[in-house]
Amino acid sequence: MGATKTEHFTNKQNSIATITKALGHPARIAIIEYLVKVDTCICGDIVNKLPLAQPTISQHLKELKNAGLIKGNIEGNTICYCIDWKAIEKLQNYFASISMKMEKKNNCC
Amino acid sequence: MGATKTEHFTNKQNSIATITKALGHPARIAIIEYLVKVDTCICGDIVNKLPLAQPTISQHLKELKNAGLIKGNIEGNTICYCIDWKAIEKLQNYFASISMKMEKKNNCC
DNA sequence: AATGTTTATCGTAATATTGCAATATTAAAT
DNA sequence: ATTTAATATTGCAATATTACGATAAACATT
User: Fold this and answer.
1) What CA–CA distance (Å, rounded) separates A41 from A31?
2) Which residues contact B50 (CB under 8 A, 6 or more apart)?
3) Closest Cα partner for B13 from A7, A11, A73, A51?
4) Distance A103 CA to D18 C1' (A)
5) Which of A18, A69, A102, B5 stands the most exposed, by the fewest C-beta atoms within 10 Å?
6) pLDDT in single tens digits along all 109 residues of chain B
7) A74 - beta bridge partners?
8) Using CB atoms, which residue from A20, A102, A109 is nearest to B71?
9) Rounded CA gap, B85 and A108, in Å?
């Protein structure tokens, strides 16, 4: 096997899993943190900041983009990446709603 | 390769990535949602609720446990799993701090 | 003690991910 | 038109993940 059985789960479950999966790698967390840190949307010096080869970074950026976590703007020669806050908000709302649901319940462990 | 280069990233980055990675599968999201939903900590009927074989569920539970997202209590024959809220809180705080940092910045995309 | 129930582990096949060298693509600068 | 710079894509090797049948382990029930 090896393939996730997405068809057995709800769209929302798959959608949250897609976002968290994209964040499930330290390099991609580091990219997100870098994009948060820099004031303007700087593009390819992510490659200089991270200890990974350029094709590897490019691939991680692609995955973040596919998951909707970042947006990319072509600016002449370079590409300006920045965080897409809708995805972050979606996650925040999701975890907040989970936490709220739990406050009314007993915790047995 | 295929092996993540964790040694190049900070402990915090690796720690967040470990949690998000564990959440990066719809079955594990479904397990978390089920544990949130049931009032008391019901154990192995997770297997009955999800469309996956028992060994597969057991494996997913192990991963959630390793990532610190759930706790398991042995109760005689059965095992009582429930959410470990420390991990969820950690994520919430992380995303909240990221969001706050961004409010002071320009968004160029 | 023998049987059933619940959960974990082992082994393994199918597939996905990670990482990078080599190369391609695109646009700017000369 | 060439060259340079920035980014993407391709191809591939190493490793990890996903899923499940078979089996084991632990306990409860009879």
Assistant:
1) 12
2) A8, B27, B30, B31, B34, B57
3) A51
4) 33
5) B5
6) 567 878 889 999 999 999 999 999 999 999 999 999 886 777 788 999 999 999 999 999 999 999 999 998 887 788 889 899 899 999 999 999 988 887 666 566 6
7) A79
8) A109
9) 12
Element (H, E) at A14: helix A11-22
Number of CB pairs, chain A paired with chain B, less than 8 A apart:
158
Instruction: Confirm if B95 and A92 have CB atoms less than 8 A apart.
Output: yes
The strand pairing partners of A79, in sequence order, are A74
* Type of residue at A13: Q
Which among A1, A14, A82, A98 is the top mutation candidate for probing chain B, defined by the most B β-carbons within 10 Å of its own β-carbon?
Answer: A98
A74: enclosing H helix or E strand? strand A70-75
Q: Cα B21 to the chain's mean position, in Å?
A: 8
How many Å apart are CA A72 and CA A75, to the nearest integer? 9
Query: Which residue approaches D12 most closely, CA to C1'?
Result: B1
